[in-house]
Amino acid sequence: MMFFKDKAKLGENITSYDLLKCLALILMTIDHIGFYFFPDNQWYRAIGRGCLPIWFGLIGYANTRELPLSFWVGGFILVAVNIMLGLYILPLNILFTMLFIRFSIDHVVRIYFKNSESMAVGLLTFFLVGIPTNYLVEYGTFAFPMVLVGYILRHGSEMKLAKLSRGLSIATLCGVFIAANIIMFDFHTAQAVCAVGIMILTTMMMAGFSPASFPELTRMMGRPVSWMIRMGGRYTLEYYIIHLLILKITLFMLEGDKYKLFQPTLFPHVE
């Protein structure tokens, strides 16, 4: 098992995947800085919400159903570090959420799109079951509405969904996904508007996504910037693990009196 891919897989040109994932990485980093260091300032979390339509939308868009060893290893490394630093055990990090989604997505799609009644029941189930499952793995079943959006974008024509039905389904799923994220956080009005706005923006980016390569943009950006964008797009797993390790260790060093080695709480600390 290797985390880092062969250099040849970095490719020569920036792709639409690279651009979308790099934007998600920036928003995710803002979100995590807020979570670890500024828990009383919800603006970080409001801005960071914008990464979720991209991450979950791309999972639904992808055809792969592989449950890679690197996800398991990376996920357990982060859990082990939390335990060692005395942070928290649950919810398990998003790598476990992604593994669960990949394992179950075909079953969920088959049941959800069976008829209009199953779609209505499915949305209610995602929302209600999302409350307890969010305490077990990050976002729990709250993630599925956006995952299904990504699936429709990739497979809508194969599913023989009329354009109107496709559009209505996407709008409904996005609405439920955004509403669930707003409910999860104690945002004041301006922060909620910001979170909704940025999630709508990144959802629109996801809705307009298609695989593409940009040789002209690559040349215009220059070698260093182009390399950084391609690295961000191709090594998101490695970035996710490494940046969280840095943030967790830094938090422990800054607040060592609050977090005791090998004395984790079940859930994140709440003042």
Strand tally:
2
What string, H for helix and E for strand, traces the elements in order? EHHHHHHHHHEHHH
Shape descriptor: globular
Alpha-carbon distance between the termini? 40 Å
**Secondary structure tally, helices:** 12
The mean pLDDT is 93
Q: How are strands sequenced across the largest beta sheet?
A: 1-2
Low-confidence spans: none
Q: What is the helix content?
A: 55-70%
Bin the strand percentage.
under 5%
Radius of gyration based on Cα positions: 19 Å
The description of the largest β-sheet is: 2 strands, antiparallel
Please state the structural category: mainly alpha
What is the strand and helix layout of this fold?
Layout: E1 14-15, H1 16-37, H2 43-48, H3 51-61, H4 69-85, H5 94-112, H6 116-133, H7 144-155, H8 163-183, H9 189-207, E2 213-214, H10 215-221, H11 223-234, H12 236-254
Antiparallel strand pairs: 1-2
Helix pairs in contact: 1-3, 1-11, 1-12, 3-7, 3-9, 4-5, 4-12, 7-8, 8-9, 10-11
